[in-house]
Amino acid sequence: MASEKLILDFPKNVVTKPIVYHVVKDFDLEFNILRAEITPNLEGRMLLEIRGKKDKIEECKNFLKKEGVQTREATQEIILDKELCVNCGACVSLCFSHALAINKDTYEIEFDKDKCVLCGICLNGCPVNALKSKI
Amino acid sequence: MPKTIEEINEKIKNGNVVVLTAEEIIDYVQENGIKKTAKEVDVVTTATFGPMCSSGAFINFGHSDPPIKMAKVWLNDVPAYTGIAAVDSYIGATELSESEGMNYGGAHVIEDLISGKNIRLRSTAYGTDCYPRKEINTYINKQTINQAYLFNPRNVYQNYSVATNSSGKIIYTYMGKLLPHFGNATYSCAGQLNPLINDPYYRTIGVGTKIFLGGGVGFVAWQGTQHNPEVERLPNGVPLGGAGTLALIGDLKNMNTKFIKAAIFTGYGVTMFMGVGIPIPVIDEEMVEYLKVKDEDIYVSISDYSVQRRNKPTFGKVNYRQLREGKITINKREVPTGSISSYQKAREIAILLKKWIKDNNFLLTSPVSQLPASGSTKPLNIVNEEEI
Question: I need a labelling partner for B333 at 20 to 30 A (CA). Which of A94, A113, B167, B222 fits?
């Protein structure tokens, strides 16, 4: 059994297709949707953890590519560099899983790695480059 | 009995001055009332640490031999303005590097100068009889240059709108990254710590007021650009959006990169986090009425930044208490909020300025001239010459 965390970018013409259904049915993969932002007729993005046979995962990625869905591996780890951070909070509202939060007493940014789903949305939202990804 | 600045300064020199931060005064007034607070407290320190694009520095490089009348100047590949005297220039915070684009800009040059790093200076000129040199390639740092002072045409906005995005795509703005379909909302004001919200009618802050600027000492030079005092206000004087602004000046050589920092807003460009602290003398009871202001008394409008027009649609008002709680409601939808200015840094500056005053390292000043209490911002219209 192998597992991978993938970010799927759906162009707007693909959003309405039942892609995830095929992932399960045609490739016998288990999946866990960690995050999805999909709206009909608009582009969408999904953070998906898939588990299954290694060759099936590769076949699935090829299938997705053929369907026009771009896949990329999710970041392995996100790091908050406290030396660079100015505790502004620009990252906080971007973090849907609340891994990045502001301490209400000290007003310092706190990063809870266990809550991070590695979606990477925060990365280009930090004005002082204090958030970095380790791949 | 109103207090004078001279009386407060005597107390500072004698070591018996009572200073509170703009946060501490809130509970103090609650417990002691207006009268007693006005009598007992002498100074309240306010502060802000937010991205302020309208910032930059004048630099005089000194004369080379043979000398040059610089016509174009680059500092680490970032163009600086030099349409003034031979070796004077102005480096603006938002100017981008010609080689690195949005990854490095004027704000980074300023930060590097403050931290003592060497900066590559490149210049070209047309050459004159008195300034024969036509180009120069050299290095400078803060020890080698003559004057280097920050002159920021617009800082310390008195309140500022909340930004959100109703469209279907991510937008990148000076208010940060805004997610589609009201995915988030950002704000950029220190609220109860903001200097001009604590002196909403500019009674004590004016031209010449001595301030904390980027870790050193600076002054209010003038009203800031787009100073707009006639914005709608609440009964407590708090404007519902950007109102008054300040132009600031201060010696760059004495600043500290802990309190002034280059910033990059992806897709927007380079700007500068400016740390500013302003002491407010508690001259009378009326001043206490303003200084007791707290986050829940400060309201601001929510603007839709996906509408690319000068006037943006708004979605009602929220207060800073709600914003700091981390979520607000827009169109019946719960929207996460984030600040793009640092409340932690603002608090640190207010506490530091309080210490400077208590330790007799910072005396207060009376304004040399008041800031305008009226006037509003004009738009730029696109017209023919006959129509203007």
Answer: A113
Q: Which residues in chain A have Cβ-Cβ distances shorter than 8 Å to B100?
A: none
Q: What is the rounded CA–CA span in Å between residue B357 and residue A2? A: 63
pLDDT digits (tens, 9 = 90+) for A115-131: 888 888 899 999 999 99
Q: What letter would DSSP give residue B207?
A: B
Q: Touching check for B334 and chain A: CB below 8 Å?
A: no
CATH number where A97 lies: 3.30.70.20
Q: Is the ipTM of this complex over 0.90?
A: yes
CATH of the domain at A65: 3.30.70.260
Contact A91 B338 (CB under 8 A): yes
Tokens 């309140």 sit on residue:
B159
| Minimal Cβ distance to A107: which of B168, B340, B344 | B344
Q: For B262-281, b where at least 16 C-beta lie within 10 A, e where not — what string?
A: bbbbbebbbbbbbbbbbbbb
The verdict on A83 and A69 lying in the same domain is: no
Domain with A25, as residue range(s), is 2-73
Burial of B224 (0-12, 13-18, 19+ CB in 10 A): buried
pTM of the model: 0.90
Give chain A's domain count. Answer: 2
Residue B269: phi, psi to the nearest 5?
Answer: 145, -160
Residue from B295, B292, B311 nearest B303 by CA? B311
**Structure token digits, residue B175:** 């208010």
Residues A16 and A31 placed together within one structural domain of the fold: yes
DSSP string, B229-256: TTS-B-TTS-BSSS---EEEEEEGGG--
Active-site residue, selected from the candidate residues B1, B15, B129, B130: B130
Are A127 and B340 within 8 A, CB to CB?
yes
* B130 flagged as catalytic: yes
Half-sphere exposure of B301 toward its Cβ, with a 13 Å CA cutoff?
17
Asked if residue A92 and residue A126 are part of one domain, the reply reads yes
Sequence-separated (6 or more) residues with CB below 8 Å from residue B96:
B78, B102, B104, B105, B106, B269, B270
- In tens, the pLDDT along A51-73 reads 888 898 888 888 888 888 888 77
CB B326 to CB A129 under 8 A?
no
Residues B230, B232: Cα–Cα separation, whole Å: 6
Q: Which residue, A37, A54, A73, sits at the end of a domain?
A: A73
- Cross-strand pairs, A46: A8, A36
